Each structure stands twice: as C-alpha cells, then as structure tokens.
Amino acid sequence: MSEERQADVQALSGTDTRVYEAVAVLAVDDRTATVEEIVHATDLPEEAVRHSLGTLAEAGWLRADGAAYAVGRHDWSVER
C-alpha cells in the first residue's frame, strides 16, 4: 500500500477502523492487543477481526508482535 493511501484514514472500512482503534487504545498504555481482546472490545466476530488484522498489518497500519498486534509506524503521536 502506498504511503499516500496509508496516511488516508478514509481508506479504511468500518470494521478496519474499529479494529485499529481497539489496538490503538491499548497502545496508549504501551500494550499490544491480542485477537481475543480485540474481539471483546469491538464485539465483532473473530473471523472478521482476524481478516481485518491481516489487512491492517499488510498495509502497515498495524504490526504483528508475536500473538498480539501493535500500532504500526506513523508520524503522529497519541496524547495521554
């Protein structure tokens, strides 16, 4: 995915946005998010979460960290 498209949050589907936000909430506390935590936080089916995680990781929005996920590289910060 190009840098331009990655920077455009409007390119994300509603499911992808919900999954990304669930991971980002934990990132504020320097935590990674497991699939189970994301399913619980989003109330989405596990299959949809796993598909979205793959899409987001492939695009660079998220990165796999063992069995969990973290926010990928970006040039903005989250204020506490």
UniProtKB/TrEMBL annotation:
This protein's UniProt keywords: DNA-binding
Gene Ontology biological process terms in this record: regulation of DNA-templated transcription
Coiled coil: none
GO molecular-function terms, A-Z: DNA binding
Stored InterPro entries: Tscrpt_reg_IclR_N, WH-like_DNA-bd_sf, WH_DNA-bd_sf
SUPFAM superfamilies membership: Winged helix' DNA-binding domain
Domain HTH iclR-type: 25-66
Keyword DNA-binding belongs to the record: yes
Superkingdom of source: Bacteria
Protein's recorded name: DNA-binding IclR family transcriptional regulator
The species this protein was found in: Streptosporangium saharense
Classification lineage: Bacteria, Bacillati, Actinomycetota, Actinomycetes, Streptosporangiales
